[in-house]
């Protein structure tokens, strides 16, 4: 069976696909009509800090994405942190002929390579999401990327790299609700 709308999830290095920040956007996409979901697996030996292993990581991601989206009409990427770095490095030719959307969760825009890779995907309809208390969040790069892409953006007040508000579970749930509403609006 060929799926017409495939969601490809690129998890964080320490944040899996069952975590709420990835799970709820996927649920929104499935409710909107996505008919297949693929979670990318990273090679066990690839760590985000080991730059020498990036070619291996990117090759593994590329192969999985090619297989997952080979005949899809629409592809929506949902990437978090390390996943945004891998997606930014993905060869745009990997997904040709499909409508492409990307939800960039806690993108690592402080890295010039990641920022350049995200901007290179300007033909993709994108949503940038970050927390303003995330030590990896760069508000200047975030805004510059948003303007360059002409995309939607959500910066969650008080939210950290997991898009949670430290010490305040109710506020964390509220940030998750805001994320869910932003993705709902994005796919509408």
Describe it for me?
The chain has 188 residues and is an alpha/beta fold. The protein has one domain: Alpha/Beta hydrolase fold, catalytic domain (Rossmann fold, 3-Layer(aba) Sandwich), CATH 3.40.50. It is built from 6 helices and 6 strands; from the N terminus they run E-H-E-H-E-H-E-H-E-H-E-H. It has a 6-stranded parallel sheet with strand order 2-1-3-4-5-6, with helices on both faces. Helix 5 links the parallel strand 5 (125-131) and strand 6. Helix 1 (20-31) packs parallel to helix 6 (169-187) and helix 3 crosses helix 4. The mean pLDDT is 91.
State the secondary-structure class: alpha/beta
Number of domains: 1
CATH architecture: 3-Layer(aba) Sandwich
Number of helices: 6
Mean pLDDT: 91
Rg estimate, integer Å: 15 Å
Broad shape: globular
What about the largest sheet?
6 strands, parallel
The end-to-end distance, rounded to whole angstroms, is: 26 Å
* Share in helix: 25-40%
The CATH superfamily turns out to be Alpha/Beta hydrolase fold, catalytic domain
Number of strands: 6
Strand fraction equals 15-25%
Strand order of the largest sheet: 2-1-3-4-5-6
Low-confidence stretches: none
CATH class: Alpha Beta
């Amino acid at each position: 069976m060929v799926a017409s709308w495939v969601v490809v999830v690129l998890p964080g290095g320490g944040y899996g696909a069952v975590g709420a920040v990835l799970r709820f956007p996927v649920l929104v996409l499935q409710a909107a009509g996505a008919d297949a979901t693929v979670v990318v697996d990273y090679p066990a030996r690839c760590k985000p800090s080991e730059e020498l292993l990036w070619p291996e990581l990117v090759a593994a991601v590329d192969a999985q994405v090619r297989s997952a989206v080979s005949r899809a009409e629409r592809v929506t990427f949902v990437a978090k942190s390390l996943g945004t770095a891998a997606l930014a490095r993905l060869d745009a030719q990997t997904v040709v002929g499909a409508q492409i959307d990307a939800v960039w969760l806690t993108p690592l825009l402080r890295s010039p390579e990641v920022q350049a890779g995200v901007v290179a995907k300007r033909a993709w309809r994108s949503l940038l999401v970050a927390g303003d208390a995330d030590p990896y969040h760069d508000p200047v790069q975030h805004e510059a990327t948003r303007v360059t892409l002409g995309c939607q953006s959500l910066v969650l007040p008080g939210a950290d790299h997991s898009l949670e508000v430290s010490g305040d579970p109710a506020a964390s749930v509220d940030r998750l609700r805001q994320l869910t509403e932003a993705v709902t609006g994005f796919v509408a």
